[in-house]
Design goal:
By secondary structure, the protein is mainly alpha-helical. 62% of the residues lie in helices and 0% in strands. The chain is built from twelve helices and no strands. Helix 7 crosses helix 8 (144-171). Residues 1-7 and 310-315 have low confidence and may be disordered. Bound molecules: protoporphyrin IX containing FE. Protoporphyrin IX containing FE binds at residues 98, 101-103, 105-106, 162, 165-166, 169, 172, 174-175, 179, 182-183, 186-187, 189-190, 193, 278, 281, 285, 291-292.
């Protein structure tokens, strides 16, 4: 009998469980009846004011009222904007002070990277094809002439801009304490900018580049210790076939190996090193107290107000 009750559901325990489940489900349905309209109302309200939705607040984590605090938060919580400081010394970023030359040098580097990658689609670093590829770019590829010339002109301008930037830093004494380390990073950047220019010169495989690199690498013969014509070079066993010039050219003459080596240094090696150095350079500008800047100047309108913001470094 007991077995029968169990199987047909008349067992006391099973009935209790069944009731519990039934009432539970009923409660859930009742709750849903009140919850769903409430949630729907919330969602409709959200559509009226999207800034209150969960999706919006997960992207923008603070209000956008125009207060100094909110403006600073806006910069700090945005991955792109935070590359710039939230607050700066107004006088330090005047063009009359910086000439904008560091920034212009960097923008030229971006243009060179962009146009350089596009040029790579058309160029082969081999003696058979290099010069033909350049002719093809100049005469047949749509926009090829302007692409090549953008790369060439940006390269010339970058060399000029980096010198002017260094000159400005020197004139404003910005190499002094606490910026000595960044000046040295800058010197490396200058060297790598010149090396980028020099390695690019050979790539068209024309007479101009060939002789420029012949002259340039011939100087390496006279490198102290490492050149076969340099001080102590011969004594250390240097010959035209094992010295630093041989290493640069991948041989004893400017030929196919030199072209390939120039290409790899120009498109991969030097841009990577220069990019890393630029990241360090910009990071140090921030860590050294921002752009050095002249002593802060107060507007007439601000004369009676207390001064705000960090002091310029060295002030
Ligand atoms: C690829 C090359 C370079 C890039 C992209 C670059 C970029 C910059 C930028 C954007 C700044 C911020 C201030 C400004 O724009 O004037 C700066 C500051 C500075 N740079 Fe360069 N720079 C380069 C090469 C050099 C060189 C060759 C030197 C010196 C040998 C140098 C030394 C400095 C110093 C000391 C500062 C801090 C200046 C200050 O606080 O007033 N940089 N650089």
């Amino acid at each position: 009998m007991a077995e029968e009750n169990k199987s047909n559901g008349k067992n006391g325990n099973q009935v209790g469980l069944l009731e519990k489940v039934t009432t539970g489900v009923k409660e859930d349905i009742n709750a849903l009846k009140t919850d769903i309209p409430a949630k729907a109302k919330d969602q409709i309200e959200g559509l009226k004011d999207p800034t209150k939705t969960q999706v919006y607040t997960s992207i923008f984590r603070h209000k956008h009222d125009d207060t100094p605090r909110n403006r600073a938060l806006g910069v700090l919580s945005n991955v792109f904007l935070h590359l710039h400081p939230a607050k700066i010394n107004r006088d330090a970023v005047r063009y009359s002070y910086t000439w904008g030359m560091g920034g212009i040098t960097f923008y030229l580097f971006i243009i060179l990277t962009y146009t350089g990658v596009l040029l790579m689609f058309y160029y082969h670093p081999s003696k058979v094809q290099a010069f033909r590829d350049v002719l093809y770019l100049e005469h047949d590829v749509p926009f090829g002439k302007i692409l090549r010339n953008m790369h060439r002109w940006a390269a010339h301008l970058m060399v000029i801009a980096v010198w002017l930037h260094m000159f400005r830093v020197f004139l404003t004494g910005s190499y002094k304490k606490p910026r000595e380390f960044n000046w040295n990073i800058g010197v490396l950047l200058l060297v790598f900018t010149l090396l980028l220019s020099f390695t690019g010169y050979l790539l068209p495989d024309d007479q101009l580049g060939f002789w420029a690199v012949t002259v340039g690498t011939n100087m390496a013969r006279a490198t102290p210790l490492l050149g076969h014509e340099g001080p102590f070079g011969p004594q250390l066993g240097m010959t035209p076939y094992n010295d630093v010039r041989f290493g640069l050219l991948g041989g004893s003459i400017v030929d196919a190996n030199a072209l390939l080596r120039s290409y790899i240094w120009h498109c991969i090696g030097i841009p990577i090193v220069a990019s890393v150095l630029m990241i360090v350079h910009f990071w140090r500008v921030r860590k050294d107290g921002g752009i050095s800047g002249p002593a802060q100047v107060m507007l007439e309108a601000e004369a009676d107000k207390p001064r705000r913001g960090p002091k310029a470094a060295g002030e």
